[in-house]
């Protein structure tokens, strides 16, 4: 399975969480559609079938990815 770049995962998680908060505040259909799109992209990017599993998978990858990225900067 292809793995999304850590920066992409980080951005998707932040985008989804922002949209979820906006939807909780105003419940507009536009925000809901954008949230659903972000959830779908997260699922595809993490190889999962629901957004909660996608968020868990993305968060698990991010700390490890940060360590690897930092080590590349020191060489």
General description of the model:
The chain has 75 residues and is an all-alpha fold. The protein has one domain. The chain is built from three helices and no strands. It holds the Pfam family DUF5133.
Helix content: over 70%
Topology order in helix (H) and strand (E) letters: HHH
Proportion of residues in β-strands: under 5%
Mean pLDDT: 86
Radius of gyration: 14 Å
pLDDT < 50 stretches: 67-75
> How is the biggest beta sheet arranged?
none
> What is the β-strand count?
0
Domain count: 1
Question: What would you call the structural class?
Answer: mainly alpha
* Number of distinct helices: 3
CA-CA gap between termini: 28 Å
Q: What is the general shape?
A: elongated
Task: From the structure above, extract its key features.
75 residues, mainly alpha, 83% helix, disordered C terminus
Topology:
Blueprint: H1 6-26, H2 29-46, H3 51-73
InterPro entries: DUF5133
Protein name: DUF5133 domain-containing protein
Pfam family, one: DUF5133
């Amino acid at each position: 399975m292809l793995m999304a770049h850590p920066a992409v995962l980080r951005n998707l998680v932040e985008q989804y969480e922002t949209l979820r908060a906006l939807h909780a505040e105003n419940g507009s259909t536009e925000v809901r559609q954008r949230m659903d799109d972000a959830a779908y992209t997260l699922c595809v990017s993490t190889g999962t079938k629901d957004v909660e599993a996608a968020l868990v998978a993305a968060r698990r990858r991010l700390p490890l990815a940060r360590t690897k990225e930092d080590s590349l900067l020191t060489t």
